[in-house]
Inverse folding.
């Protein structure tokens, strides 16, 4: 992980819905390679994509970021 924060939940959510990285990348309007880098923390996840993913999966942005515990 260089530039971003590793966000484990986007991979878990994607796999739970049985989406491929390419399918999610297409929804976000990016490439599979860039999306893969979001999942492994090599690229920071843009806020607009964070919001889109929360809508896609029906969860809060806090959940995706792991901020939903102990609040």
């Amino acid at each position: 992980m260089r530039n971003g924060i590793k966000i484990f939940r986007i991979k878990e959510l994607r796999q739970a819905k049985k989406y491929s990285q390419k399918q999610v990348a297409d929804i976000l309007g990016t490439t599979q390679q860039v999306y893969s880098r979001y999942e492994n923390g090599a690229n920071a996840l843009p806020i607009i994509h964070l919001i889109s993913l929360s809508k896609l999966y029906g969860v809060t942005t806090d959940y995706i970021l792991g901020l939903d515990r102990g609040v």
Summary: The mean pLDDT is 89. The chain has one domain: 8-64. Helices lie at 8-16, 21-28, 32-40, 47-57, 61-65. The two ends are 27 Å apart (CA to CA).
